[in-house]
Amino acid sequence: MSELVKLISVWEEYTKKNTDISATEFCMYFLAKESNSELFGGLTPPDLDTTFAKLIGRLAGMQNAYSKMALHDMPGFELEWFYFLSSIYHLKEVKKTHIIQYNFAEQTTGIDTLNRLKKQGYISERPDPDDKRAKLVSLTPEGEKVLFHLYKLLYKPTLLMYHSIDYKDKQVVINILKDTEQKHQYILSNTKGKLIDELLIEEFGEGQLETIQENLQKQITRFAKERS
Fold first, then answer.
1. Per-residue pLDDT reduced to its tens digit, 167-177
2. Which residue from 8, 25, 49, 69 lies 20 to 30 Å from 58 (Cα-Cα)?
3. Which residue, among 76, 85, 80, has the nearest Cα to 67 in the 3D structure?
4. Residues 6+ apart with CB under 8 A from 71
5. How far is residue 226's CA from residue 215's CA, in Å, rounded to a whole number?
6. Which CB contacts under 8 angstroms, 24+ apart, belong to 186-191?
7. Among candidate residues 64, 60, 101, the one with its CA nearest the CA of residue 80
8. Using one digit for the tens of pLDDT, what is the confidence trace for 5-47?
9. 192 DSSP 8-state letter
């Protein structure tokens, strides 16, 4: 089958199930279908945003799995501890609340993690001279020693997963995602008690959000038809 015949066949099949589709929408569908069909063992979500999020999420899950393998020789050491130690190291002496927010942890979970790190002798704490209700934490020499050892161990998963990707391609992805990371670091650090629907309304407005949700429902409906 020639490429043109293949394209026409897909168009005819698609328009049988989606009579109100435009040529532009079909082309976007076809390109996404062709390029994304091999992702996730064929379990591709119905919309591009979710496909994008799923790819990032699965890569993060793989990194997490490999990282736990890399910590095999450090029984009892939890991967989450590394993120806390690393952020404390870079932020120097820092408030407990700030380090918990930086790592997107629940308050009780974050306090428990910091208490365990203190018990291990990896961090120390003292009252904040500018706010007697707060505590400042910093790495101890032992904590710094452990952190540098962890950097060597946890570089292994990074090497395994990403070293073969071209340098320029990695920089392009960083350039694309860095604003999103900075934006949502700020949002998550300043939206205590808010619901996700409130954040969506602030981001898009009620009218645009309603339109987005309607379009998503159409995509899901088409997705279901294709699977039936």
1. 999 999 999 99
2. 25
3. 80
4. 77, 79, 153, 154
5. 17
6. 188/101, 188/104, 189/101, 189/102
7. 64
8. 666 676 676 666 666 767 766 666 666 555 555 555 556 666 7
9. T
